[in-house]
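G., before I forget:
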Amino acid sequence: MNTISIKYTSYAIAPDGISIGKTYSLEKDKKGYYISDIETKQYLDFEIIKMLFTPVEKAWEEITL
Amino acid sequence: MLYALKDCANLRIDATSDSKTKLFVNYAQTSTLDFTSEQVFAKNKNVKAVRFDSNRESTFKTTMEVFAKDVIPLLFGTEYEQKTISWAKREVLAVTSGTATLVGTPKTGTLQVYKVDEDDLITHVSEQTVGTTTTADKYAITGQNLTFNTTTTFANDGHVVCYYFVDTVSNSFTVDNVTFPGGYVIYGDGELKGTDQNPEFVQFKLHNVKPQSNCTLTMDVSNICTLEITWDVMGDSKGDMMTWSTVA
């Protein structure tokens, strides 16, 4: 899949290690979906990612994974 | 003629930094001028014969039960400014069939959710964190709608308390550990009344005053807060502390 840039936008307190305002990359490997930047790599359920993050350039509906 | 003095002076408070009037106070309960000085005596044998006076000091104390809100930052040496502040908000929501809806719009990443004791709706029972709602104490959020676990956490309807912040443009001031009150000139208007019952206008000027930096704001369920400001009265560059005038 293509790397997608996402940002945390939920009202909820962010999970440990996630910073508000920072841009993360959404990627997938054989273990599942993960978000990453230079310091972080966190595997999260894709539905949770969609709930908490918003793509920087497009809406979730417009993205093909 | 003899005179009597009653009532509290009306005060005009000018900052020495820009000579502008910062406050007019005509609502104080009391205004008390207090002067002290030190004395030493030369004695003839053991009898005081000559007195030497020195070290005149003064304070001006005002007490208020109603006050302009600008009085409070003045005590701390600061002023209100308009800026965006994160206001702490609390909402208690009923969870019905595992769902609840926030009324407010939280700032991103600030929402904390706790299931609360049904008896008091205050005591936290368990923290709810975002996740898959098939797991106990996890919730999902879409906009302002919250969905909770209905197999364990909210098998029955209940309540959650939500804490969050909302950014709001506010008039605010911050008390820091380096900024202290500046200097002021106070003009006080009062009235003497003679034994002929006619009032006589009096104005006093305190040339160089500064509110003491010790301040207590008591918020009491039983008593009205009395705001007490004690100003240190100092001499100006000429040594003048107070000028008291009546119309000639």
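The helical segments of chain B are 71-75. Chain B touches chain A at residues 102, 105-113, 129-132, 140-142, 144, 164 (CB under 8 Å).

More on Monday.
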